[in-house]
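Q: Given only this backbone (153 positions), what sequence would you predict?
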């Protein structure tokens, strides 16, 4: 990738983060949010939500990450130096348990894993506000994440 492409990629990432941050600011503390994903992007979103006293149900598949969040208030794999307020975090490896009882679902995982990550979901999310923080499109289908989620869940 040349410098020109890198510049636009960085601008896109900054724009996407600002857009997600603005949507998060519209969420009030009465709402519970489900976060699907446990990487850097998801961790940053959890940090913003919990700093704003918003209760988060966090879908974490990696047992080491789940344990470190619960016991140390940190994601041991991504953004390791970020302290998380665990009083507002409930973590689970069960996507249905995470989504149940929430009014907002934030998808924050690599687009390559969206199908496999969402596959176990049996609870309908059509009545929830779904925010996609996923970068990219659904592999093999070449459609936006929101189109895929709306048509399958």
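A: Predicted residues:
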């Amino acid at each position: 990738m040349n410098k020109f492409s890198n510049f636009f990629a960085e601008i896109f990432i900054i724009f996407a983060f600002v857009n997600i941050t603005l949507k998060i600011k519209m969420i009030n503390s009465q709402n519970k949010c489900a976060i699907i994903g446990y990487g850097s992007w998801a961790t940053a979103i959890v940090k913003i939500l919990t700093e704003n006293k918003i209760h988060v149900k966090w879908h974490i598949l990696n047992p080491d990450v789940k344990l470190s969040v619960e016991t140390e208030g940190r994601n041991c794999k991504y953004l390791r130096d970020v302290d998380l307020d665990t009083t507002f975090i409930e973590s689970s490896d069960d996507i249905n348990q995470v989504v149940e009882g929430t009014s907002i679902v934030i998808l924050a995982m690599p687009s390559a894993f969206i199908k496999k990550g969402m596959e176990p979901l049996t609870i309908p999310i059509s009545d929830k506000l779904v925010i996609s923080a996923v970068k990219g499109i659904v592999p093999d289908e070449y459609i936006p994440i929101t189109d895929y989620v709306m048509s399958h869940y």
